[in-house]
Amino acid sequence: MATTQAAERTAADEGSLSTETIFETLSNRRRRYTLHYLKRIDEPVTIRDLSEQLAAWENGVEREQVKPKERKRLYTALHQTHLPKMDRLGVVAYDSDRGVVALTETIDQFDIYFDLVAADEIPWSQFYLALGSVATALVAIAALGVQPFASLGAFGYALAVTLLFTAVASYHTLRDQRRVVGSADRPPETTIPPADEIEATSDGRDD
């Protein structure tokens, strides 16, 4: 364990994070929420402020509606587990004496990993595969002369397929921009790669 922690600290000091470290950080909802809030605020915050906002997100209420018990529960988990771990990994700088936390420059390395699948959506790769399969099938049917598909013509199908993929790709791009960490009021809900792809840790649970 000591060797692993030393390696993590060395990598963090060098300004680089391993894929395993990034996924381990993102595998926990509270750590994802922490990154989202810190990047949105873009300045150091107190752990009290952070815990209150995370409690509001977790309970689906406004910040002024957060109960002291809910905030204290988040405060304890952040102070004892998540922030020290993220500080050791070099993801944040946590001053436990002052109770202040701030992002480090390594946050930029997380951006490409936030193009993840929402809990209620299918992967976009599968969507594009299905869309391409349908378009191919329609063109094949038209090529065989089946009516009314054949009446559109080759140029018409090429134009229709091009416009369809352009429209879908435009929506995909706009959607992803809204889902980037720190870009919206509420953090995006995502699914993280299966647990067997990252090392299971005792603080990987949300509770």
UniProtKB/TrEMBL annotation:
Transmembrane segments annotated in the record for this chain: 127-146, 152-171
Keywords: Membrane, Transmembrane, Transmembrane helix
Sequence segments annotated as region (Disordered): 180-207
Domain spans labelled DUF7344: 23-101
Protein name: DUF7344 domain-containing protein
Organism: Halorientalis regularis
